[in-house]
Amino acid sequence: MKFPARLRVLCKANHGAALVELALVSPLLLLLLFGAIDFGRAFFAGLEVANAAHAGAEYGSQFPTNTANISTAAQQSAPNLSNLTVSAPTWGCECSDGTLYSAGCTVTPVCVASTTRSATYIHRVQVTATGIYHPLLPWPHIPSSITLTQTATIRGN
After folding, report:
1. Are 55 and 74 in contact (CB under 8 A)?
2. CA–CA distances in Å: residue 140 to residues 43, 80, 92
3. Partner of 74 for a Cys bridge, out of 56, 130, 131, 145, CB 3.0 to 4.6 A?
4. What is the SS3 assignment for 133?
5. Boundaries of every domain in the chain
6. Is 75 exposed, middle or buried (0-12, 13-18, 19+ CB in 10 A)?
7. In the chain, pLDDT over 90 holds for what percent of residues?
8. Nearest residue to 37 (alpha-carbon basis) of 132, 137, 130, 131
9. Among positive and negative, which fits the CA dihedral 139, 145, 151, 152?
10. pLDDT per residue over 76-103, tens digit each?
C-alpha cells in the first residue's frame, strides 16, 4: 500500500519533536535540580553545626571554665543557622596520656610520668551543637525535619 505524497511528508517531518522531548524530560530535570539544591543545603547545615561545635571547643581549650562564652563562641560561629542550640559544655582535667579524667577538675588527677611525657594534667572541653534542617520540598521517605548533631572534644593546656 502506497501512502499519498502529502501523508508521507507529514510522517517524515519532525516539527515540534524537540518540544515534546522537553516536555517529557523537564520534570525529571527539575526533580534532579531541586534534589541537588536540597542536598547542598543539608550538607551546608551539617558543616555549620560541625564548625560551631569545633569553634566552641576551640574557645574552651583556652578558657575551659567560661562555659557561657564557650556557648556564645559556638553560636557566633554559625550565623546562618537560626535554630542552632549548644548543650552545656563539659570540661575537666585528665592526664596527658588520656587517663584519670576528673569532670570540672573537682579532683586534680595524679599523673604518672612516662619515659616520653612528664607527669602533667591538661584540660579537656567537649561541646555538642545541634541544628534542625528542613528540606525545601517534601521528599518521599525523608522526614520533614532532620536533626543534625555534632560533638567536638579538644584537649588544651
Report:
1. yes
2. 19, 27, 44
3. 56
4. strand
5. 15-156
6. middle
7. 48
8. 137
9. positive
10. 999 888 899 999 899 988 888 778 888 8
